[in-house]
Amino acid sequence: MHFYLDPGGKLTGRIRVPGDKSMSHRSIMLGSIAEGRTTVSGFLEGEDALATLASFRDMGVQITDPDAGELTIEGVGLRGLEPPKQVMDVGNSGTSIRLMMGLLAGQSFDSVLTGDQSLLRRPMARVITPLSQMGALISSHEGCPPLEIQGGRALTGIHYDLPVASAQVKSSVLLAGLFASGRTSLTEPAPTRDHTERMLTGFGYGVACDNGVISLEGGGKLTGADIDIPADISSAAFFMVGASIAPGSDLTLEHVGINPTRDGVITILRAMGADIQIHNERQVGGEPVADLRIRHAPLTGIDIPIEAVPLAIDELPAVLIAAACADGVTVLRGAEELRVKESDRIASMAEGLSQLGIENRVQPDGIEVVGGEMTGGVITTHHDHRIAMSFAMAALRASDRIKVSDCAHVATSFPGFAALAVQTGLRLEAAEE
Known about the structure:
By secondary structure, this protein is α+β, with helices and mostly antiparallel strands. The protein has twelve helices and 23 strands. Helix 1 runs parallel beside helix 6. The radius of gyration is 21 Å and the shape is globular. It starts with a strand and ends with a strand.
């Protein structure tokens, strides 16, 4: 599947992008180990979240098929999961495999986690290290999947200082802590998304956050809950950038989650001069939600605030498209986490920007982008959904046609992206070759 994009156009109208991927994963995991029924609305029916769903079904959890984002989960309790009938393949989903490592480390049975070729190259040592300190026994292939997790291990709570800001590592340790004796606690070098902490609280499990230390006691229980998942700000980010860079754009994104540990993209784009208005702020299921109105505005290159980077880590590829359209130089630092995503996103974005005639300089932990005039060209996505969607938006300011190759992975996080983009005004044609 490839995207073919004609240059120009503008984004207008009102749309709602799919549900938050991070929360969709967590709703399945926590709903499965809760006691009683959990109902979920706004569930993202993308390949990543569906891989998590399939894994928990394989461990004996009854989960209805998603219908327009709604499903129910019959929780089996902390100790009620059954041995999986097979190796659990989570496809391209780094969130699934890293969070499930923590949850499976406390089970009585052995399990094996694997994924697609991209996932098999992603490092897992950063998660294995703290889980091993808790007593888990996890075998890997030189630090990468497949992962063999031995069951029947007695886990003990620890305090762990995260060496890098990572919500996935934090969440995996907290999930293991549910099955550990004593207290499990962590400190972060910088705040990261807190969906796990919020959702655990929503399921009635006590989580303490005190002076930067996040902690919980093992041996409690989760109680089934009603979960309403807002639209994913990571998916909204592509449209936020597109409307910001395309003259004449006026686009409203409805029901977007604006969790303060996820709103870095708004902070960064506003600092560049973007016209982003927040309307109808409200709380939905313990998560802040709002409608975002974005209108075209001239952008200026900035030094991206280092504290905003972990709050926008998944949205940074889209931000770099905004940087390519800005006046001056945009400098991104402290983003080495981008090196270990679905692709090396620093290298992938640098390669694509160069293909479109945009000067850039790669650094070990970031990139400098010099704003300029984008040409057309062929973009290699390296099978990375966020690279594909970012460069689709670049066509709004390109001088010639852009082909974005290998876009099948867009369905991992944003099924229906092409149709929704066309609806708002992007000149996109999706075609198989």
